[in-house]
Amino acid sequence: MKESKRSPGSEWLKNHPRLLELAYDSSKVLLKRFYPLLKRVNQRATERFMIWSEKRVKGYTFNCQMCGQCILHSTGMTCPMNCPKNLRNGPCGGVRANGHCEVIPEMPCVWVQAFERSQMMGAYSHEIKLLQPPVNRQLQDGSSWINMLEGVDQQTPPGWTPVKDLTD
Ligand code: SF4
């Protein structure tokens, strides 16, 4: 099913990743400032609120699958977990000639969209070239914002070094 059918309006937003990039940067600044205070006041309630709001806001906009380790800004503000193969590095070798998915032929390839949208971004456009570590399923259904603020999403499995820039 086309994402625009699932979430009316979200396709327009995703096709304007520069706006989403600004929203991402602003949210990050605000959260970095207020999270320590909110955590001191009530850690459990803060966590519940963050999960609740991520499910709604990111669920609507990105069809977020709550993987708990968000890399949207590195993937053209296109959620990689919408790829039927859940690839964190893509595309696979099966992209059709029309740029659609080999598993769901009527769906545009998430990674083709990610690349095209990344080229419309400002500060983060180069991050599409980063080699992402495997997704940590233990973080599923948690708050990716909290995992980012706590540095949990930066922990890589044994044998992996943190995200590597392929342009080096
Ligand atoms: S990368 Fe993970 S946290 Fe980010 S939108 Fe996709 S499923 Fe949600």
Indicate the topology.
Layout: H1 3-6, H2 10-14, H3 17-62, H4 110-118, E1 130-131, H5 144-149, E2 164-165
Antiparallel strand pairs: 1-2
Give an account of the 3D structure.
- With 168 residues, the chain is mainly alpha-helical.
- The protein has one domain (3-150).
- Helices cover 42% and strands 2% of the residues.
- The chain contains five helices and two strands; from the N terminus they run ααααβαβ.
- The chain has helices at 3-6, 10-14, 17-62, 110-118, 144-149, and strands spanning 130-131, 164-165.
- A two-stranded antiparallel sheet has the order 1-2.
- The protein is globular.
- The structure holds iron/sulfur cluster.
- Iron/sulfur cluster binds at residues 58, 62, 64-67, 70-72, 79-81, 144.
What gross morphology would you assign? globular
Low-confidence spans: none
Cα radius of gyration in angstroms:
16 Å
Mean pLDDT: 91
Structural class: mainly alpha
Labels describing this entry:
5 helices, mainly alpha, 168 residues, two-stranded antiparallel ribbon, binds iron/sulfur cluster, 2 strands
State the gist of this model.
This protein is mainly α and 168 residues long. It has 5 helices and 2 strands; from the N terminus they run ααααβαβ.
